[in-house]
């Protein structure tokens, strides 16, 4: 599998990440920080590059429909929603949209639900997003097989069976020629590598590329060299 660093990938697909910096800074402020009193609001930190990468892939393939497993706080969805070509986003999570939990906004502790965060996001493009519970997945499997252009698997990273089932769902929903992204492909942590390697062995027609992104835009001294997101083209 080819390994590429983030900036080389952006150069190859002619994606100017600086054009998205301020918008994604806003999104990451609400959705991508952890409690840290030493960091200032608005500061972009290690790992925030993920939002740029997912958006870049969407831009590159001119995706119209995006499916995600593992909403988190919605970082990827809000980022992708800013792409003009996108007209539908469906994201599913094991936590209900209205459940409040301990999170962070701008590196400061906050008790919020994803519904609360949605109200804070200032971009009207967020209306493209449908936030669903994992119990709703079967509805999409039955009604929208092969309808999505891009899927992002960012749910459970440690249970092999769950990751395999997430792939089964994504593979059913993504059209031939579409793309499936796997987050947290790492040589020693998580179970994602084991599953992805098996999938690629069983599907020699798939093209795959590992893009290392952590620290390639922010906190560059810690730039990752052997882990990141795997881009699988069907």
Give the class from helix and strand content and strand pairing: alpha/beta
The number of helical elements comes to 8
CATH 2nd-level architecture: 3-Layer(aba) Sandwich
Radius of gyration: 17 Å
- Helix/strand order, N-terminal first: EHHHEHEEEHEHEHEHEE
The largest sheet, given as strand count, sense and whether it forms a barrel, is:
8 strands, mixed
Which word captures the global form? globular
**Proportion of residues in extended strands:** 25-35%
The overall number of domains is 1
Query: Which regions have little confidence, pLDDT < 50, spanning 5+ residues?
Result: none
Mean pLDDT: 97
CATH topology value = Rossmann fold
Query: Looking across the biggest beta sheet, what order are the strands in?
Result: 1-9-10-8-7-2-3-6
CATH uppermost class = Alpha Beta
Tell me about this structure.
- This protein has one domain: Rossmann fold.
- 39% of the residues are buried.
- An eight-stranded mixed β-sheet has the order 1-9-10-8-7-2-3-6, sandwiched between helices. Strands 4-5 form a two-stranded antiparallel sheet.
- The protein contains eight helices and ten strands.
- With 234 residues, it is of the alpha/beta class.
- β7, α7 and β8 form a beta-alpha-beta unit.
Can you describe this structure in just a few lines?
The protein contains eight helices and ten strands. The protein is an alpha/beta fold and 234 residues long.
């Amino acid at each position: 599998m080819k390994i590429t660093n983030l900036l080389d990938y952006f150069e190859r697909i002619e994606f100017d990440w600086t054009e998205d910096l301020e918008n994604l800074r806003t999104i990451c402020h609400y959705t991508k920080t952890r409690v840290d009193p030493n960091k200032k609001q608005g500061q972009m930190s290690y790992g925030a590059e993920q939002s740029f990468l997912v958006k870049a892939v969407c831009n590159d393939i001119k995706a119209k429909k995006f499916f995600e497993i593992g909403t988190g706080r919605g970082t990827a969805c809000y980022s992708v929603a800013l792409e003009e070509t996108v007209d539908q986003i469906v994201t599913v999570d094991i936590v209900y949209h209205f459940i409040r939990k301990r999170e962070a906004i701008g590196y400061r502790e906050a008790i919020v639900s994803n519904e609360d965060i949605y109200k804070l996001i200032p971009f009207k493009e967020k209306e493209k997003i449908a936030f669903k519970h994992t119990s709703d997945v079967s509805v999409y499997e039955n009604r929208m097989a092969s309808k999505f252009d891009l899927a992002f698997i960012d749910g459970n990273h440690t249970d092999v069976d769950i990751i395999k089932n997430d792939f089964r769902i994504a593979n059913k929903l993504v059209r031939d020629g579409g793309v499936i992204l796997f987050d947290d492909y790492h040589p020693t942590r998580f179970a994602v590598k084991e599953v992805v390697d098996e999938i690629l062995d069983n599907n020699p027609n798939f093209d795959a590329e590992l893009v290392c992104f952590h620290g390639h835009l922010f906190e560059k001294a810690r730039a990752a060299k052997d882990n990141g997101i795997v881009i699988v083209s069907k």
